[in-house]
TrEMBL record, chains A, B, C, D, E, F:
Keywords on record: Exonuclease, Hydrolase, Nuclease
Gene label: yhaM
Protein name: 3'-5' exoribonuclease YhaM
GO MF term list: exonuclease activity; nucleic acid binding
Pfam families, sorted: HD, tRNA_anti-codon
Protein source organism: Ornithinibacillus hominis
HD domain boundaries: 163-279
Domain of life of the native organism: Bacteria
Keyword Hydrolase attributed: yes
GO BP annotations listed: rRNA 3'-end processing
Family annotation (InterPro entries): HD/PDEase_dom, HD_domain, NA-bd_OB-fold, NA-bd_OB_tRNA, YhaM_exoribonuc/phosphodiest
């Protein structure tokens, strides 16, 4: 397939398969219609202009279609923009699939799910274990596929599972360093904290927010879900309440979406581990794109900072 | 029973029955133990000192006991404080009960509950009506008795029901003025918005927060409860989601405990009506205690303002 | 006149009379001048491009002119934009007037003014009544015509009077619910609170801020005005001070333009009623434009929220 | 009269005349009444306890009385407190007057007023000059006596006039450095900016806030006053508006009491000069009380900072 | 030595050796002097009253003296307070030393210093290693003894070294998980980040802030120190700048004392690891003092939260 | 050279020499490349479009080149933009130099430096004098040339020296008014406070931030520099610490880049004088560009305010 869209520079030509993420019609100053497409593959995305389009073009080149294009990459208002020279829909014989054009976690989804299952198997508190097992069983399929967010961090296929498994690794070490921590509780909190996103987000391709996601948000939805599962399993006791508290408080502050702040040790730790893994994911991905001696683009979710990559090792 | 504790001035003598709200032991500079009691009746509360107490006194004069006392009201560090001259436990023959010493809503609890029932009966959307009816049925007893808060506003017996019924009156008029408003939805939101407080608060006398109340708060608890009831009733549909949203968003802002702000017209209106009735309750009760031309004490929940009562009518 | 400008969709053609709200000249990439016009009628407004204009065009098509145009509505940078095909000034024989192209309050201005007069007539406190009557008499003409703001809420002909009359309706009901409220004072506060806007805003068409409005603002101007009127009427006494306080404090907080927060019951209530009516006006108008199941555009003055219109009734 | 109250240390005895600033009755743990007096003279103030008081004592030793006392200065909860040994009312023969016990500006009031008059005489813009002259004439007496505030800065007899005259000195130099500044306007702004305090504060001894001061504040009152004077003088024109703007905006920000921020060069400068002179007055007075190498007490109005006095010169 | 001061309850008697942390003289209402002492040993601290003291007592019982006392623990204004029955200075024959009465890190200082040395030995970047080695050599003695803060976290003997070593453990694991991280740089940042506290704090017993500490703070002092050492070692290059940046930015935000926020990956990680270890130290120590089912005291440095200790394991 | 670029209006033609501040390539909708140039001379700057450029054009017309152009000034998206008609590089025979195209301080650099030297000569504290003299000697050349900032205030050649000298004038007067101020300390603080900018900024033409400037900022760099100089001069004592404190705290608040706020009188005064001179510089330059009766453009660094220029004198 050649080099991906994210590895091209201004001035390059591009030829290959991409996914249409978004398509909007406009009218040029000469009165002719054109399409503004947002194109993506596993390496990145770019805005592209298709000039002088026909009604047929409009009908063909729509969101979530795979297309084959050639074009040149120019600069427009300080950002790269592709001028499309040729375009056609992908055909069965091209042998290309949506999954080939999406970015994926650096670890295989099967491996991530196996790791999760092992951790649950290790748990010693039966109440916590039963609740976690029931929820993971219910959400197994989407959990293995969903991103952790629509943008900012772990925004790729299996991103949520990847985020959970990374957090569990950090947790394991912190439990060694601080033996007072309740390992089962912390692990359970990590596994459950963002499961509500499976209801909040619309899916894996062109991810948006669901109506539930907009009106309730993943945190209250997951608190409720734990309550439902506990009722179904007919388990009761402080574990249920504390698990709900961990999920509820994991954003750390009311302003950040947790109406109650962490009030249990493992809740505080869950919040901090979430912060580290999300920030390191953003940071590492941004620094990968620049050379030593350069600054990254501004990272919105990190207070709009631009980070420097030192020249020494 | 004479004038209540809240109607006494510095320099007055007091004689009558009161409830012990709080009792702590201290040691005076002469080395002798004393008790600091917080005493209340339906009209107010006061701190009182009982000097030179015996071990027996300590055992007798404990929280939630009814006692008969005589004493004088002095000033201590700018606040009234009673010096107790005589004290004894209330006896069966005194014919005095806890309920006699608690402040109550200005409307009878039966009347409040009847009003609620009528409103539910009027609802036309069957889904909304079924959910509200089921919840009210489940919580009927505590709802008729609980305060709306531990302090600040409607902090008296049947305070929550009184708050709801006042809000419903305001809502009725606003629905007339703004006919676009969905009346069933707004009424349902008003009735349900604070029902979670019945789990958040410990009871009617010496009200404190429950563990659930501290770790989850009444808002997420009530969102979950609506979910449970909807499952039990096997109702589904947007009404459930929107009702949960109304409860979730009724504090108006993340900083005030609503992780999602109001995003539905009736949610915004619910928030505003809640604000008006809570503030007017605080304000009216504070202004009742002062004369024209005076300022009230500072009202913590109203940005610590002190309000002026004009001299004209 | 056909369907108004606000009822057109992208892709529609438009033909009809509109008012030029704003006109700016630009130069296209082909070196030829063009005009960017903002056009409005009673139903909404739209940006329009008139390409290849002559010097004569520039002189003709200026702010506040009524024109007859035909054109098509396209999308430009995510917003509707009209491409003008033909344009001419309205002529006397077209029988169209500025007032026909401005949005008006849903209640007639005469009716609004009558309602105001009745309320003043009902007042029992003679000082309050005299002051209010004198001010209303002085500002009768503009009060019956001005909008309540340049944008956000009640931004239409007679908007201020409409806002006042709606607030008075809410006030009447709240006075019933909370009989401690001084009705004359609250009514007077509502009637006077925004009269300063008649000096702050430039007029009814193409409303902007006056120099006074920018350097003082309507609140201090109205406090001063009450002082002047009181001197002219030779009335004195606490009523004058309290009325000034109501006007001064009606934005609720220093950050929102009230250097003193409400410190009188009726001042607090005035602030809350103002909030409700302004918000409901914005909200109702925004929701009117969307279908059930959709979200409104973002509402800047409501914390930039986008509101959902439920699908049930 | 010996050393003043502010120059005594813990452990010292005191003998002399003081003014009672505040008197409150309490009851000691032995059941006997006592008086807590706040005593002041020109050098400072101290809390004092008078034990075992009679009803006659209570009647005699009240606010604003001059008394002669002897006592010792102890430490109580980290602060100095006087234990009174003997106390009596001052008598005519003692030849002591209230003015002797109040702190005064370091410059004579006559000199301050002369300086003010000279500055007004220098003004060249007749409108500005007439307004300033009329206001100063009206408020001459209190202006020569009032403090600039109840505490924090220039809180002494003639403090306001002292503050104005110091600000005028700074202004003169800044006008030399920045010749674009309109000197008449800046001088007028400085002279008028705090005249509203003469209505906001109750007087020179035991200064408190008036009802007007609490409900309107000195800024809106002074804006109104300028409007009244302009009407009386029948002057009109932009000068009146700009002077009102200078007064209105001189606190610099909405949060600090100026609903409109400075939008004219001289308004910005007025705000900055006010800041400098107020801060330097606080700072100099606090540093005077400590030795080189020490820190001052915390200064509430300077973000609660405690300042260091270096050991070198 | 019996049970320490921190393990006593209200009502207990105490007998043993303690250190005087603070001593202030007061005068009782009977006119007699008394001493308020703050007493501490390795387990905690308590306020104590010594009544009717002589001048000799005052001279003997001063800050940093070791004394032997007997007394009873009462409650005063909601806090424990000891009433001293007998008191004498410790004597040589008592065999008690200051170090016995101070809390220490749970790991021996020698072990902590050995661990530090090993880590420095492992570093591969020679510039970083030379700088770190030089600084550690210079500050070896105080580094092995100082607390990490005067209160909140690691406020015990060798607290700073303990904090550093714990952070290094976390860092090692995170470097495994995120191999892009520059391990030498992160380790060096951790070791150096708080060395400035050795100049900011006065010592190990009765720790206060030095003048330098108050006027500059440990962060700018350490940035300067790295500059000095680099000059002395005659090393240059980006490593010096980046190490200074890590120290400068480690509080994460301007409001928290870092004028520049982290702009290098390892700087961000250093900030997060510091946060985790400081918070876990506070939290673990607070939870140790309560039983399952209870809440801790409010933790000021953790947003004044009170944490819950669950009842299950 | 004719009228400068900053004195042209929309519709004017321009002919003259300018400096290229920035050049970016784009592709027009017709597929041809164009250059967007930012052009400046001593009077201002403008964006310009050069259409249909060749590869040679791209290579010639780059940053910091002097060019001679003719063109017309149009409006584009509300801002002036030049359409270039002819363009060529300046030649030796044109006799034009970079310095001719940069804005300069209104006072000659030699005069500014002389003034600085005189002030240092007047100092009486030998330690302060030696430190200041050594630093000024070291940085003499850039200090005489650098701007005080990249934009907002004193952003012209010799801007920093101009800012310092203006501040010294204000300081002299304030020292007369408040004789308690340590004049040497205040003068030294003013001279040194922004010297760190000589390392923070890249130079005089096309000024940007250096890596050091981004990662440390001028304040910590200057604190360190004072430490180095003091070591080199082998001076010690409180003066060094206090000078470092003055530099460190001169932004006034942590949020504004001073991790320690001013805690010494002269530090507070330095901060206030800096504020005045920076604001007056911005304000005077903005007001110069508008006529009486107009408002300035919005000033970002002054809370985005737009200032009014009164019509009277």
């Amino acid at each position: 397939m050649g080099k991906g869209i994210g590895h091209h520079q201004i001035g390059d030509s591009f030829e290959g398969f991409v996914l249409i993420k978004d398509a909007t019609k406009g009218t040029a100053s000469n009165g002719k219609p054109f399409l503004t497409l947002v194109l993506r593959d596993a390496t990145g995305e770019i805005e592209a202009k298709l000039w002088d389009v026909t009604g047929e073009d409009e009908a063909l080149f729509v969101q979530e279609q795979i297309i084959r294009i050639t074009g040149e990459i120019n600069q427009f208002r300080g950002k790269p923009q592709m001028r499309i020279n040729s375009i056609r829909l992908a055909q069965a014989t091209d042998g290309i699939q949506v999954a080939d054009l999406l970015e994926k976690a650096p670890v295989e989804r099967e491996e991530l799910m196996t790791r999760l299952t092992e951790i649950i198997f290790e748990m010693q508190n039966p109440t916590i274990q039963r609740i976690v097992r029931a929820i993971i069983k219910k959400y197994q399929e989407p959990l293995s596929l969903y991103p952790a967010a629509t943008r900012n961090h772990h925004e790729y296929v299996s991103g949520l599972a990847h985020h959970i498994v990374s957090m569990l690794k950090i947790a394991r070490e912190l439990c060694d360093l601080y033996p007072q921590v309740n390992k089962d509780l912390l692990y359970a909190g990590i596994i459950l904290h963002d499961i509500g996103k499976l209801k909040e987000l619309s899916g894996v391709v062109s991810t948006t927010y669901t109506l539930q996601g907009k009106l309730l948000g993943h945190i209250p939805m997951m608190v409720e879900e734990i309550g439902h599962i506990a009722r179904e399993l007919e388990v009761d006791g402080e574990e249920v309440l504390i698990l709900q508290h961990l999920v509820l408080s994991h954003h750390g502050k009311a302003e950040w979406g947790s109406p109650t702040p962490p009030l249990v040790r493992e809740a505080e730790l869950l919040h901090l581990i979430d912060l580290i893994d999300a920030k390191m994911n953003m940071l590492n991905r941004a620094l990968e794109k620049v050379k030593p001696g350069e600054f990254t683009e501004r990272l919105y979710a990190m207070d709009n900072r631009s980070f420097y990559k030192p020249t020494f090792e």
